[in-house]
Amino acid sequence: MRRLSWLITRTIEKIGITGWLVILMSIVVVSYACLQLLPLQQQLAAIEAQPKPTRTVKTNVVIAEEHRLPVLDQMPSALTLTERLQTFFTIVEDFDLTINEVSYSEQHKKGEEVMRYQLTFVVEEQYPTIKEFVLTALAAMPYLALDAIAFERESIKQSQVVTKLRFTLFMVQS
After folding, report:
1. How is domain 70-172 classified at the architecture level of CATH?
2. Alpha-helical runs (H) found in 50-174
3. Which of these, 154, 146, 141, lies nearest to 119 by C-alpha position?
4. At 60, is the pLDDT very low, low, confident or very high (cuts 50, 70, 90)?
5. Which three-class secondary structure state does DSSP give residue 128?
6. Cβ(114)–Cβ(133) under 8 Å?
7. Residue 55 pLDDT level (bands cut at 50, 70, 90)
8. What is the mean pLDDT of the chain?
9. Which of 18, 24, 106, 166 has the CB geometry, 3.0–4.6 Å to 120, for a possible disulfide?
């Protein structure tokens, strides 16, 4: 105990009365903050624990007697694929486009009535001709979609544009 007493006396002499006042004030401030913040934290926890009011939304559920969409009745049948492709390539011939290679891809997901038939090819022609071809093909075939179009030109002075086109023809699976 004498050692503790000596240590306290020595510390008081070294830091002085001002140091002790600072330490005492720090202890008071920390104690006050704890006493003030603890009830506020408890109140906040109580508020967060309360159930939040939820907004109810009234919904009307309509059960369709027929699952077939009306738009499917207007789509061409997959049995007419050859005729649809002939129509497409007639438009290609009308614009005097040269297509070297065409890749075909048939996509049909299980359980769906819609079949997708993709045509991908490259054409080298002037931009206005390609634009007019695309617009004419889309107007002539309502269930044809332009999925992708990419232009390449070697120089700005060149009038020919190499264009990669990907069309999808939507048809009803029979």
Report:
1. 2-Layer Sandwich (3.30)
2. 70-74, 81-94, 127-140
3. 146
4. low
5. helix
6. no
7. low
8. 83
9. 166
Q: How many CA atoms lie within 13 A of 64 on its CB side?
A: 5
Listed residue (160, 151, 149, 139) closest to 97, CA to CA: 160
Q: Where along the chain do its domains lie?
A: 1-51, 70-172
* Upper half-sphere CA count for residue 32 (Cβ side, 13 Å): 6
Residues 6 or more apart in contact with residue 55 via CB below 8 angstroms: none
pTM across the whole model? 0.58
Q: State the DSSP code for 63.
A: -
CA distances (Å), 48 to each of 41, 43, 52, in order? 11, 9, 9
Q: What would the two tokens of residue 41 be?
A: 């934290």
Q: How far apart are CA 12 and CA 111, in angstroms?
A: 88
CA 119/CA 102 separation, integer angstroms: 7
- Contact assessment for residue 141 and residue 171, using Cβ atoms and an 8 Å cutoff: no
- b/e code 77-87 from CB counts within 10 Å (16+ = b): ebeeeeebeeb
The neighbouring-strand residues paired with 119 are 104, 167
Q: 23-45 pLDDT, tens per residue?
A: 888 888 888 877 887 787 788 77
Angstrom CA distances, 79 to 37, 75, 106, 140, 147, stand at 77, 12, 13, 19, 23
